[in-house]
Amino acid sequence: MSVLVNKDSKIIVQGFTGKEGSFHAEQMIEYGTNIVGGVTPGKGGQEHLGKPVKNTVADAVKDLGADTTIIFVPPAFAGDAIMEAAEAGIKVIICITEGIPVQDMVKVRSYIQDRDCTLIGPNCPGVITPGEAKVGIMPGFVFKKGNIGVVSKSGTLTYEAADQIVKAGLGISTAIGIGGDPIVGTPTKEAIELFMNDPETVGIVMIGEIGGNYEALAAQYIKETGNKKPVVGFIAGQTAPAGRTMGHAGAIVGGKDDTAEAKMKIMAECGIHVVHSPAEIGITMKKVIEG
């Protein structure tokens, strides 16, 4: 089984005819993802990459039965694109866009909180269920089907973890890149919860980074559930200097609990198998699962 996306998802691309949207839509179609069309205002009625283009998400839902969207819209308009998708009834909204103003995301979070949808991102690599649907910008060939769930704040470390898991002889149920901004639609805890409730996911890899409290909240949740599935955890930014943003907008040590060391300590206390290098993720998961 999988979470969020699978072979039956009916996916549209917002910003379909733009440079980024076109490039990644083509890659997703090649992977076998069920892209049913796309949205570019003013270009409705045209065809692009052999798929219909609609003027609005509402049209794509009505005419194409879309239930999932991936957003490649410039930062100034991406917040509106997310809200448009939520308003139209899209269930899974994946926003790749980097650099959305925090103030816009505050409005977006407020707007979508009472709606029946899940937002992944922004500033994320997307979601992949190997062999079924790649809804994102990740290199699909790295991911092989299996029963390990991956939740990551870092895009490149998502791919690294997948590679390590596969090299250890395991595979991935779904990998979720939650995004590295200060405000994201699905924090680590909520993503972990999806895997805890997925009967076919037997272990979870949780990759975090300095800044914020997402990992601590997730670790506490895992402990409260009685550690019912083994979790291997890694925190990026172990040598980051305090007060400096590292890569992601949300990766900044603002207090003593934001450091990699503090997060790793909390995770270990909550029963998570903490590794100090991404190179140890796969072998540690294999050891933990096989006892």
TrEMBL record:
Pathway this chain belongs to: Carbohydrate metabolism; tricarboxylic acid cycle; succinate from succinyl-CoA (ligase route): step 1/1
Family annotation (Gene3D superfamilies): NAD(P)-binding Rossmann-like Domain (3.40.50.720), Succinyl-CoA synthetase domains (3.40.50.261)
One GO term (biological process): tricarboxylic acid cycle
Pfam families linked to this entry: CoA_binding, Ligase_CoA
GO molecular function: nucleotide binding; succinate-CoA ligase (ADP-forming) activity; succinate-CoA ligase (GDP-forming) activity
InterPro entries to which the protein is assigned, alphabetical: Cit_synth/succinyl-CoA_lig_AS, Citrt_syn/SCS-alpha_CS, CoA-bd, CoA_lig_alpha, NAD(P)-bd_dom_sf, SUCC_ACL_C, Succinyl-CoA_synth-like
Active site (UniProt): H248
Protein EC: 6.2.1.5
PANTHER family registered for this protein in UniProt: SUCCINATE--COA LIGASE [ADP_GDP-FORMING] SUBUNIT ALPHA, MITOCHONDRIAL (PTHR11117:SF2), SUCCINYL-COA LIGASE SUBUNIT ALPHA (PTHR11117)
Protein role: Succinyl-CoA synthetase functions in the citric acid cycle (TCA), coupling the hydrolysis of succinyl-CoA to the synthesis of either ATP or GTP and thus represents the only step of substrate-level phosphorylation in the TCA. The alpha subunit of the enzyme binds the substrates coenzyme A and phosphate, while succinate binding and nucleotide specificity is provided by the beta subunit.
Assembly: Heterotetramer of two alpha and two beta subunits.
Protein name: Succinate--CoA ligase [ADP-forming] subunit alpha
Species for this entry: Portibacter lacus
